[in-house]
Design goal:
Elements: H1 2-9, E1 17-18, E2 21-22, H2 24-38, H3 43-50, H4 66-79, E3 85-86, H5 97-105, H6 107-110, E4 114-118, H7 121-130, E5 138-140, H8 154-161, E6 169-175, H9 185-201, E7 205-211, H10 218-226, E8 232-234, H11 241-247, E9 250-253, H12 258-264, E10 268-272, E11 288-290, H13 293-303, H14 307-324
Parallel strand pairs: 3-4, 4-5, 6-7, 6-9, 7-8, 9-10, 10-11
Antiparallel strand pairs: 1-2
Helix pairs in contact: 1-2, 8-11, 9-13
């Protein structure tokens, strides 16, 4: 109950004053308990800590939304702990207006020794352009997103996923919730209509749909009813991304972080940019960018027209993937 009440009140002013009496000494222990209890539920945090000899106490806040960043600001200023603040983000760092807003709104928190980790120089430059971070506060560490994944054989991955190994090619496509300014309903509908129509006519291709954990399934479910093809497979939201990539030949997305994992796993990436927004072209030269549904259909028909055409496409991107990584 205390945790629930505190979480509701974190963003209120004068939180610790009651009739001019400072109640901080009573409340602070509950704040610390609230944050500490939630750390074990953070799977990525736990996997990261297991990979290093980490003996310090860990206090975690979710700062990806302004509401939760307020908690981080309160903790940093009120408890005045001697600590290192760092993120555990595995998302792709693109040029986003919200990044600038977050930094300006919570500059105090980010300027207190905050360290962030990024995959490559491009992502570091994106952060520097959108924030006031010091260069030394942005550490390039390469990609570390395999989270306990062991390099299984394809046969094992097919077994784990309960998918039959009966198609010449497998296309993996992500389904994400529509989000204003990022991904429109029209984009989602156009994407799946085009891909469903193509795969319905090409039975040598297995289409695997991986919904994002936060996605709402109403649009997708209606479209699946329309295209009831045996080679279209809907996975669970918590299906293993690494096993899915292990059996896939192509990954279709707009800007998902999984696209970066696909590049690392030598899976061809098609990035759909139907809104022609350059800021979402996050994979540089390591992906094929498509700007319309008609272009998408023509491209798929071309690269899957023969094994020779598909191999030619994959060979073209080998060097590009290495350069990106």
């Amino acid at each position: 109950k205390n945790k629930r009440n505190l979480s509701k009140k974190f963003n209120q002013r004068n939180l610790f004053l009651y009739e001019s009496v400072d109640l901080s000494r009573l409340i602070f222990p509950y704040i610390f308990e609230y944050l500490s209890i939630n750390v074990p539920d953070n799977y990525r945090m736990q996997k990261s800590l297991k990979n290093i000899d980490f003996k310090a106490n860990v206090v975690a806040t979710n700062y990806c939304r302004a509401y939760y960043m307020k908690q981080g600001e309160i903790i940093a200023s009120a408890l005045d702990l001697k600590c290192i603040s760092f993120d555990n983000n595995v998302g792709m760092v693109g040029r986003l207006p919200y990044t600038r807003f977050s930094y300006e709104e919570f500059k105090f928190f980010f300027d207190r020794g905050f360290i962030t980790f990024v995959v490559n120089k491009t992502e570091k430059m994106n952060l520097l352009a959108d924030t006031g971070y010091r260069k030394e506060s942005i550490v390039i560490m390469g990609d570390k997103t395999n989270f306990g994944y062991e390099h299984s054989s394809k046969i094992e991955s097919f077994r784990v996923l309960s998918i039959k190994n009966s198609y010449d090619y497998y296309i993996l496509i992500d389904y994400s919730t529509q989000l204003f300014g990022f991904l429109s309903t029209k984009e989602v509908f156009s994407t799946f209509k085009s891909v469903f129509e193509f795969c319905s006519k090409n039975k040598k291709i297995g289409l695997i749909i991986k919904p994002h954990p936060s996605s709402k399934m109403d649009i997708l479910n209606k479209m699946l009813d329309m295209y009831n093809a045996s080679n279209i497979m809907l996975m669970k939201k918590n299906s293993s991304i690494m096993h899915l990539l292990n059996i896939s030949d192509v990954f279709i997305t707009k800007f998902s972080t999984v696209g970066r994992d696909a590049i690392l796993h030598n899976v061809q990436v098609i990035s759909l940019q139907f809104d022609n927004e350059l800021m979402f072209e996050n994979y540089k030269d390591a992906a094929t960018y498509i700007y319309s549904t008609s272009q998408l259909i023509k491209f798929l028909e071309s690269v899957f027209s023969s094994k020779k055409m598909f191999l030619q496409w994959t060979e073209e991107f080998k060097g590009r993937r290495l350069l990106y990584i």
